[in-house]
Design goal:
Elements: H1 2-11, H2 15-87, H3 95-105, H4 116-123, H5 133-150, H6 158-166, H7 169-179, H8 207-219, H9 221-260
Helix pairs in contact: 1-2, 2-3, 2-4, 2-9, 3-8, 5-9, 6-9
Length: about 260
């Protein structure tokens, strides 16, 4: 339609009409590009808001996980120290109490790392969608460095291996069921972290196994030495835990404040 009008205007040498039609065509193209750009910018803003909110939720859950790990580690140290004191003659414990505390000294808390939003941003080359600079940098530092240093004390520590080599499997199953943390704890439930590992527990119908295990713990200096190392490992982990807890706390607070003024 427009091309036909331009052709007719040229044929009639109506240059004013030719110029006007060209202006209309160019204006239409420019407006079309601008609308496309506006729509693209709007879609990017919406995605950025969505991804920043998702990342904040993930990091809030990670902060709970760090707090849980820290409190659990404190309980491990407390239980392991009481077992060590008993082995070295500074505290009197019954055989059952010693076995329970020695078991708890071998434990560690683990909840899977929550990082789907960060991984999605990195995989798609979209990390710059997180436009709050300090928040973005904190997420990058946390996810790129925390998994190795934060949990360096976990896994098959020498004490954990040594204890598991002498505890009867049936007794160990009961210890896990009765004296370990609730496996169904919900991420974000801070109230559940009270007395995480130090709650009272009892073991029934294993008197002979408990007596034999307690004798082996008391009779082998290796267990006292390994317990001492376990306590030091757990103490050292608190340095990393505190750093990352503060890192995420500051980042989340700054991000929330920036959202509040928008």
């Amino acid at each position: 339609m427009i091309l036909a009008r331009i052709t007719r205007a040229v044929r009639e040498q109506n240059w004013f009409a030719v110029v006007l039609e060209f202006i209309i065509v160019i204006a239409g193209v420019v407006i079309g590009f601008q609308i496309t750009a506006w729509n693209g910018e709007r879609a990017e803003r919406v995605r950025a808001e969505t991804m920043m909110a998702r990342l904040a939720d993930d990091l809030e859950a990670e902060r709970w996980r760090i707090t849980a790990t820290s409190l659990y580690s404190e309980d491990v140290v407390a239980e392991a120290q009481e077992a060590l004191d008993a082995l070295e003659g500074r505290r009197d414990l019954t055989d059952e109490e010693l076995v329970i505390k020695a078991f708890r000294g071998s434990q560690y808390f683990w909840a899977g790392v929550i990082r789907p939003t960060y991984d999605e941003l990195v995989a798609g080359g979209e990390i710059d969608l997180i436009r709050h600079g300090p928040f973005r940098e904190a997420a990058i530092e946390y996810y790129n460095s925390s998994q190795r240093s934060l949990f360096s004390e976990l896994g098959n520590t020498p004490y954990r291996d040594a204890f598991r080599q002498i505890v009867p499997p049936a007794l160990h199953r009961v210890l896990v069921a009765n004296c370990a943390e609730d496996p169904n704890i919900t991420i974000g439930d801070y109230e559940a972290l009270d007395n995480f590992l130090t709650f009272p527990c009892e073991i029934n119908d294993f008197e002979e196994e408990i007596a034999t295990l307690a004798d082996r713990l008391r009779g082998d200096q290796r267990f006292a030495d390994l317990l001492r190392g376990r306590i030091i490992e757990a103490d050292q982990s608190q340095i990393n835990l505190l750093y990352f807890e503060e890192l995420l706390g500051r980042a989340l607070a700054d991000f929330a404040a920036s959202r509040a003024v928008q």
